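Reminder to self: tokens first, then the designed residues, so the page reads top to bottom the way the pipeline ran.
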């Protein structure tokens, strides 16, 4: 293009640099949150799906229960706590960008439930 005079040399360099920058961003986007390339096999995807399905099928969330680390590693990108609210940012490769839980209502309901029940001890911490 530049040789035919369609664009100037400077314009060619600018466009080439812009394309290199975009390519670099795309390549970085192919890395997971730990900075590793991640090629999921069919077996990995099935394991992630089964973990999420088991979590979703839970009927009640026990305040002493702990979310399995495998589930967090597979689906959660980051968790941010701000003013009584936990914002769970899910890994976008699974189609969900954000899931927000307002813990202020949860705390109130848990306090009311604890008043009605005998106190329990958490085994995991």
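Designed residues (125 positions):
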């Amino acid at each position: 293009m530049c040789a035919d005079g369609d664009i100037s040399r400077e314009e060619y360099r600018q466009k080439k640099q812009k394309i290199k920058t975009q390519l670099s961003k795309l390549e970085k986007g192919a890395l997971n949150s730990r900075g590793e390339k991640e090629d999921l096999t069919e077996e990995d995807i099935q394991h992630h799906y089964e973990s999420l399905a088991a979590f979703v099928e839970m009927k009640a969330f026990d305040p002493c229960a702990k979310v399995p680390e495998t589930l967090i590693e597979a689906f959660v990108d980051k968790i941010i706590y701000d003013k009584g609210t936990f914002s769970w940012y899910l890994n976008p490769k699974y189609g969900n960008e954000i899931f927000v839980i307002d813990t202020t209502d949860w705390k109130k309901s848990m306090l009311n439930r604890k008043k009605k029940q005998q106190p329990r001890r958490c085994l995991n911490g």
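The chain has a mean pLDDT of 65.
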